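Record type: ASSEMBLY
Status: queued
Input:
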Amino acid sequence: MNMEQRRKERLDRGIKVRTDGIYAVMSMRELAYLIVPRFVLIAGMLVLPFAMPGMYWQRVISIVCIYAILALCFDFLAHFVGLVSLGGAFFIGVGGYITAILNTSFGMPPLLGVPIAAVAGGLICTFLLLPCLPLRGVYFAIVTLMYPLAMGRVIEALDIFGGTDGIMGLESFPNRWVEQYLVIVTVLVFLFGLRRLVNQDMGLVFRAVKDNDQAVKASGMSITFYKAIAVFIASAMGCFGGACLVHIYMWSGISLFALDFSILPIAATVIGGAGTLVGPVLGCFILVPISELLRAFGTLRIVFYSLILVGFVVFKSEGIMVYGQRKYHQFERWVKV
Amino acid sequence: MDILIYGIINSIALALMALGFALVYGISRIANFAHGALYVINGFIVWTLLRGAGLNYFLSIIAALIATGVLGALMYQFILIRVRGMAISEIIASYAIGLAILEGLRWWGFKGMSNTLPVFWEGSIMIGEVPVDLHRVLVVVIGVAVVGFLWIFTHFTRIGLALRGMAQDERAALMLGIDSDVMALVAMALGAMLAGLAAVLLMPLGNIVVEKGYNVLIQAIAVCIVGGLGSWMGAVLASFLIGFAQILTTVYIGSHFQMVVALLAIILTLILRPSGLFGRQKELEERV
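Status: finished
Output:
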């Protein structure tokens, strides 16, 4: 063995430590180190609708944001609470149907109906998922995968809420700028809200539930209570997205429970970087436009993004954002062993 | 009477769909969410060989089974082996592969009602006062034979015993010189071939459509979960339970509810008894 034995050493940059918790920022440059990435994200998202050529791509931005909300839900539940929920479509569907019914039956305007649908939908989803909360790992994943499928089939079989035709003739948002900025601002609020939440006391308990639920139980806290709160937060967010989606399409139907809404956010999370919360949003901004560009190829786009998903899960499971953060915060060098 | 007969037929069909899934999960602990896709692609290969290449029906079935088995093995060897042990990654990866296969077939123009496989035997016989076509009888016979064959295979052959050893305790099996990766590979190939066999037997009763992949997957999962993940006899018993429940709902409520039954069975079983009616798993691993 004549091979030189080397390994890569990674060290945090000094500036990372100074800006990471104690905030001993000493110059504009260090301030910039802290602020620029966040600013680029916020400004970029706010400018986005103006940068898009034409109505069609502006609509795509709205859809991207809704997927981003779902991806945030998934990332939050999976990597901060330890509940791998494959049922994003369930949240979308429940939120969508609630606001559709409010709008058509009671004439509720969209801007009022959407928040109500978010809260009510969150409560309904939490209530329905409550019995599954003690389940772990794969079992929770399978049961949540089945919820939207079952919901869609039940609506189809019972022929309620418009059956297979869905509910048509919904009001749209007052104009397309309201529509876009509503979803864009929502994504930003949810993103930074969740980032803050997971560092609060409650977030600590969430992460403890993920890492070692027995220890949390032993500390005299109810795991189910905290899981229920987390599910409520996530499902209210998902229902908000669903409600917006329904008003954008002006139509609500069984396809809201379609697997797309469960799978694409997961793919985005895997690609963007799990457990970073920013990553999933980024992943959506990469995946959904690609999928739109490939719309001409029909279902081939699903093939395409499932293959990307497999590739990332298997070969590059850390995702773009984790990789990026590492390069940003750390320097690497080769050292002799 | 016809409820009884068609219930049995439906149950055997379900058992055939589920056995592959149960086998793979039981041995390698991989929840193979590409099961439905393997089922459909087998039907597709048979159809291509039969209609496209003009091969003999029997030969094309054998060739398709081998091809599906190889596909399952490749899937394990190149993709799933890398995420082995990470349950969620396994599910996501295998589901994505399945999705890619199914939607790829759909894109290739494999949709609509035009693709059918011929039944093995035309004609029907009377059992009591109920007419049953011969193909369905054949399904029952072969289904029972497959269950019996699997039982003999896992109890009396070296590979079968090794597979069971893996299923019971992977570490102990490793210490006794059983290569766990090879065994998981064999299990995946066998599971894929079982999915293919189910497809060959059940496809002639309907059309080859992509949607069937999703339904087969859901039904296989339903059977395996009700029976207890990883328990093969449980899966067979559960397929009778769900099979009769489906036939009863079809007769008394409406055929729309057939899938609802399977889905509700999954949800209720997981909530009430996650290890299934006949499974014996460690309680702590599945719920708090």
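Annotation: Residues 54-81 of chain A form the longest helix (28 residues).
Annotation: Residues 70-258 of chain A form one domain.
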